[in-house]
Amino acid sequence: MFEGFWKDKYPAGIAAEINPDEYPNIQTVLKQSCQRFADKPAFSNLGKTITYGELYELSGAFAAYLQQHTDLQPGDRIAVQLPNLLQYPIAVFGAIRAGLIVVNTNPLYTAREMEHQFNDSGAKALVCLANMAHLAEKVVPQTSVKYVFITEVADLLSPFKRVLINSVIKYVKKMVPAYHLPNAIKFNDVLSKGHGQPVRDANPPSSDVAVLQYTGGTTGVAKGAMLTHRNLIANMLQCKALMGSNLNEGCEILITPLPLYHIYAFTFHCMAMMLIGNHNVLISNPRDLPAMVKELSKWKFSGFVGLNTLFVALCNSEAFRKLDFSALKVTLSGGMALQLSVAERWKAVTGCPICEGYGMTETSPVASVNPIQNIQVGTIGIPVPSTLCKVINDAGEELPLGEVGELCIKGPQVMKGYWERPDATDEIMDSEGWLKSGDIAIIQPDGYMRIVDRKKDMILVSGFNVYPNELEDVMASLPGVLQSAAIGIPDEKTGELIKVFIVVKPGMTLTKEQVMAHMRANLTAYKAPKIVEFRDSLPTTNVGKILRRELRDEELKKLGLKK
């Protein structure tokens, strides 16, 4: 694709380029924003709000402690394993100010997954929630983690609320299993010891790694994507240019239900919104819908970042539908394909259209998005500024516009490579900096792109390619379907046959015959499923992405093709 193809594809007023070297590192951005917006709210959670000035002070206390009370050195890795709490941005920004590399860790990880990630990253410190400390107790001795900082959910609230909430979580809800970590240090003690102490803010070059973001857990062993200061700053400026083009500085309220340890929420809320001084309302447990809706009712929110499964769940909630959406002007979707029926319903309920974007951990993550000025539902929009895309065939040759092939991405947000895995890096990135996404896409003549599907999830029926996303979109339009997934299972006759899994909405009924008739009415014969299985639930990742691979592995086991 000739370089200039995208230049004229941006809406008026949106620049086709950003300067990824506008700031030398994240420390500089943070300092500047916290000074500019010192009195503005930065993060809220559990009824408490901290301003940008307080965020700088608290992250400084954390950094000072790390510098004065530990032997951790710039470049050492610290694993941060927290849900969406105020402690998260404090720990992350504090660690970055001390020059450490943040290893974002999912709090729902099993001991096995934690051990792999801590050992792979060589983490020397861990910040975790008391609720997970029993797992840390098991894992830490098998790793190089030397310092463990433990926090309880309500640690940053007023003394009364803190004692009350922490006691309820511990003694009433029994959510904190007993643990024994005699050398662990309490997060609040860290902050009080570091309070008012001098901080030597690290000043790393932009090419240094800032975050290790693990990925690929759904396809096999997780790999750490090395995201540099320059990668994250570039993506922060790209998000601001294209996703936040209608957001003003220092006055917007954004709902943050997606976990901050996930790169999408991390870059958008902790980076792009920090740059423009906006207010992020942290939702600690989005699975508790009533509590989430109650929290939403307290705010005149102007931005909402979610994904398909969450939009469905909220629109099905009567209490949600009654909320005041008059201030809402940006809804962003990412992480999984947005279904047309869901986008339409969200717009009908809230009055705000959804801008779907696309990205991967390896691109920090945002690679493309629908500009709010010109949304094409069903596409992933156009590349964010300073980003090029192309599609290639199996031989690696670039294909013309409108042809189906693997999407490749090139831009300043593309990772440095996988941590200590040069072979895996070479598989996905070429010498010119093009990253192979593993997704099958089409680039339209107008520059908008459509993902047809994951390369790996494609089903092959009698030589025809069938893409599960398409089947799931059709199933989603059948009344009564809450969730669905389509997979291919080996078949002597056709190579693969299609099996679909469906979760029915509570209080509704569906028969196999109804599903089959609906599918046959909407799809060519070879795309129609041969088997329908109803389930109470489907396996999902912690952000709600349905794990087709897991369903397929189950089927292969049944056939004796997989151990």
Descriptive account of the structure:
It is an enzyme of class 6 (ligase). There is one protein chain. The chain has about 575 residues and is of the alpha/beta class. It has a 9-stranded mixed sheet. It has an 8-stranded mixed sheet with strand order 7-6-5-3-4-8-9-19, sandwiched between helices. A 4-stranded antiparallel sheet has the order 17-18-20-21. The mean pLDDT is about 95.
Strand content: 15-25%
What is the name of the CATH topology of the largest domain? Rossmann fold
Count of discrete domains? 3
By DSSP (H or I, 4+ residues per run), the number of helices equals 17
User: What is the level 1 CATH name of the largest domain?
Assistant: Alpha Beta
Give the distance, in angstroms, between the N- and C-terminal Cα atoms.
44 Å
What value does the Rg take, in angstroms? 23 Å
Query: Could you give the order of strands across the largest sheet?
Result: 2-1-11-10-12-13-14-15-16
Helicity, in percent? 25-40%
Mean pLDDT: 94
Reported CATH architecture of the largest domain: 3-Layer(aba) Sandwich
Morphology: globular
Low-confidence stretches: none
How does the major sheet shape up? 9 strands, mixed
| Tally of DSSP β-strands | 26
Structural class: alpha/beta
CATH superfamily of the largest domain: ANL, N-terminal domain
Which tags fit this structure?
563 residues, Rossmann fold, GMP Synthetase, Chain A, domain 3, 23% strand, AMP-dep_synth/lig_dom
